[in-house]
Amino acid sequence: MPTVVLMDVSLSMTRPVSLDGSDEFQRKNLAVHGLNMLFEHMASNYRLEFTSLMAFSSLWELLVPFTRDYNALQEALGNLEDYDKTCVEAALNGVSNVVQQEWAVTDGSLGIGKGSLRHSLQTQKHRGDDKKFPLPFPFPTKLFIMSVANAEELQMTDAMDNLEELLRLSGGDGQIFTMEGPLCMKSVQAMFGRLIDHAYSPFHAVLHCGNLSSDVQVFPRPEPIVMDEEVEPMPRSVNIDLEIVGFIEIADISSPPVISRHLVLPINVNKEVDEVGTGTTDELEEEPSASQMAGKSPNFCVLLHGSLKVEGMVALVQLGPEWYGMLYSQADSKKKSNLMMSLFEPGPEPLPWLGKITHLGPISEAAENPYGEDDSKSPFPLQPSAKRSYAQNVTVWIKASGLQTDVQKILRNARKLPDKTQTFYKELNRLRKAALAFGFWELLKGVADLLERECTLLPDSAHPDAAFQLSHAAQQLKLASTGDSQYAAFDHNIAPMHTDFSS
Amino acid sequence: MKMFSVAHKTVFVVDHCPYMAESSRQQVECDVLTKSRAQGVIPLAPVSKSLWTCAVECSMEYCRILYDVYPLHKLINYIVSDSEFHILNSWRQEDQSTHELMSALAAVGPPNPREDPECCSILHGLVAAVESLSKITELQHERRTSLMDTAERVANRGRIICLTNAKSDTHVRMLEDCIQETILEQNKLAAGSDRLMAIQQCDLILVHIHPQGEDTLVSDRPKKEISPLLTSEIHCVRAGRHLSTKLNILVQQNFDLASTTITNIPMKEEQHANTSANYDVELLHHRDAHLEFFKSGDLHMAGTSTRENGLKETITLKWCTPRTNSIELHYCTGAYRISPTDVNSRPSSCLTNFLLNGNLSSHDPSGKLPVERAKAQLERHTRYWPMIISQTTIFNMQAVVPLANLIVKETLSEEDVLTCQKTVYNLVDMERKNDPLPISTVGSRGKGPKRDEQYRIMWNELETLVKTHAGATDRHQRVLDCIIACRSKPPEEEERKKRGRKREDREDRTEKNGSKDTDDKSWQESERLKGLVDKEEQESEVIKDSPDSPEPLNKKPRLCTEEVQPPERAKGPVSLLTMWSNRITVANSRKHQEFVGRVSSVNNKFELYQQLKDENGMDVHENGKASR
């Protein structure tokens, strides 16, 4: 999820922080320090993510458009100027514009550097209906408010209430962070540390395939999901052990619906540990050599990615109890492709055409190769246990045309007796069943009359069997129309009359 | 939609009282005479459906759409009411099909117009419906059992759709009151039963059906709360077309469905095979399928149209003949089950037949879950799996394939064992013929390892592979035994070529020299040979944990004296091939002079570079390397 950082550059942010010690800081300096920390963290753990920086006061300005260049973001932080007063509404409108411009359809997440919001939030309370408040955004968002003030300070006024209202308006997904203890570098670090833990911690997992495994980062982080707030209110999270259960042809899994897609990046665990906490720019420059090192040791991800690509298959991976996903090679461009993981909807049977995932087994154990010896067939898609209405010849007479078509079909075949004896009786029985189920006995009588009339209209050249079959069918329909259980049983079928001609 | 929302249970209560036998007064002309036949033929009088027929066919259509879109967990209980109630099916999944219901309806037949109307009432059915709603379904039972201490999370809600001909608003109110009362009574009963659940919410939809052209004494009323347990809505509808439209709208509302019309589907004309015309087909599906349109605000682009009734909208999509090849993965955010609105119209069936042409099979697992067997198979296949092609010999050899394919099996047949043994013999044969092996020479100076060294590496690797499976069954073990018995011990092989040596001379050196020192040494040796120094750790991991590995080499294999010819000492019978090989070896050994080292060996060992050891103490290993 891309991030928009919204930095308050109003005068209130220049208020000095009263410190016992020597150095005098402004709140702005604290905010910048915290954001630098966030950017450094993202540079080392979220380098694929786009971030943009906006400054706002009564106006807003896009300082850095969405970028992966975290140096540029940090540089911009160093060149902030001070402006007049805080106006959150304008800033949020700005965010909405920027996001929709840059990301026609996407999700964005917000951080807000905040000083004194009090005034502007109060004025927003009196906004006219004509001027729509920018929240909630027309795209999914998480709103994180980083307040360079402690909770007590905010609670002395109604600032906290206003911020909470803001969060509620945004859809409720997000959090307000305040500083704990005195306003100093240490506590601003602690606050941003909490944000990072909450929203920017990388998702590390171990990908297993039998005895092979690889440490990976799954990016972006798979978010926990709630399937049914009533029966299962606890959100389901992806396991940190991802177990490959098998491989399947792309044609068989056939572009399945997924709830999210993620890059699967092999990581060097030791390297990661080294980086934590010391994400300096110097280290970033050294990274290529580190990744070169990583490139030399064989990695299961590389093997898996290459194999999936070459074989045109995907790997089914278990994400948790009754939760599966797939690993596959996704082409980025002609030359480059990535190992990706898509998450299926949780449940034992996310893709009906494969059946229950737990019922999928190794081909080698099948009595007969389900793909045929020459790979000419496939066991998928599975036949559903009950046929859908469109896969069976159902009878619907809601529209008059449906009924007319069915009657005409019978008459058409009646005129071609005895050649069409089988089709004639098939259509006749279909009509009979539906008429009995719908309690439409009048129709049975009517069709019987029609058949009798057809009998009288038979040309002299007609086969003698035709007359016998027509009167037999008419008689049977009439019997059924009495509701007599002997003749009106639903599962009973009218059989062709056995004549000397029909043999 | 929650798993146990009101949509989980729907009870249809259909009036089967004598007045339902009345005609809907909508006539259907089913005798369509063609002009050529029209002369002199009296057409059949049009038929007309009874109120009952209209109610039944529309309710069946509701069920058809529901079952198409939700094959599971959205259940229907069908009740017919006259002088008593008739329950036509149960909540059980196997009873959930239109075929089941039609069969039961056929047994009920149309209402008997001569029955005493005083004895008949829709009330019998409504009371039965409430009782039915309190009965636990398979899914509710399963979830309650699995949730154990949080079983109360399984809710019991349901909906009653009553198709009747009511007398008046007062009559309707009486029915509502009666349902409310029955719910309260039934909830008391449920408290003391395992198979019953208290009803937490019941939505009543009462559809008053009246014949065409007759004024209704009942008024429409939107959904209203009768009590915290019961809501009720009243719809007054003329039988026939209007009723079917009404139920179509209801099924959409009740189950979160939406409509999409596929337009411009090219189709061959029925009458003129050479021409084709474009048709439209309307489909119903879960409304989430339209979510992305709403999100992107592109609804107008997709095109919406309001139907004549003004209540239902459909999104129109233009048909594109699919050109995708099935070996590409496309990003897909949703797949939804569909049901054609007009299922047996020709355009609908052409579309669905086009989409359905798949070959299908079904399977039923028995015993251990197949997916667990799949995982077990993956585990077996990855016990020994070199990650780099240049680090493996055996997986580059066609000759090893039969064994490599078989040894990973959970069980082996006698025939499999035989195939594996043949593979081993074949390798022995290759070795004797001095066939080259596909050992990578990348990184090594010169031509890479000598042939006998290549074979030693190959045998080590093969043994490592088979050893990881040897514990599985006796037959796996026999394959390993065969390898141990047949594999060459390179030094001896070398020796055998150089000079004769009697088999009896062999020292009993079967005990493995498992000392770490020698192992490592052999490691470095092979590493050096392959020029894969940076892989040292891994590589040594692979081979050194093989306790039955041959005696590790000293660095100059040709000069060291090692045990000779182990095959006969190995477990199991000696193969013919081994016996023959030994004979040849013995014969050859007579043809040359013995080496000094071997002659003066102790226990078939002769220590090399003894002077270096004296100088540098114990670090033979390092010196050995340096001396090269």
With strands numbered from the N-terminus, the spatial order across the biggest sheet of chain A is 9-10-12-15-14-13-11
Q: How many alpha or pi helices of chain B? A: 22
Oligomer, anyone? heterodimer
Distance between the termini of chain A: 75 Å
Molecular shape of chain B: elongated
Main sheet specs of chain A: 7 strands, mixed, barrel
Average the pLDDT over all residues of chain A and give the rounded result: 82
Question: Main β-sheet of chain B: number of strands, strand sense, barrel status?
Answer: 7 strands, mixed
Question: Strand share of the residues of chain A?
Answer: 15-25%
Task: Give me the secondary-structure category of chain A.
Answer: alpha/beta
Write the H/E string of chain A, N to C: EEEHEEHHEHEHHEHEEEHEHHHEEEHHHH
Unreliable spans of chain A: 101-117, 125-130, 271-289
Class by SSE composition of chain B: alpha/beta
Number of helices of chain A: 15
Alpha carbon gyration radius of chain A: 36 Å
Domain VWFA (chain A): 3-103
GO cellular component, one term (chain A): integrator complex
Protein name (chain A): Integrator complex subunit 14
Subcellular location (chain A): Nucleus
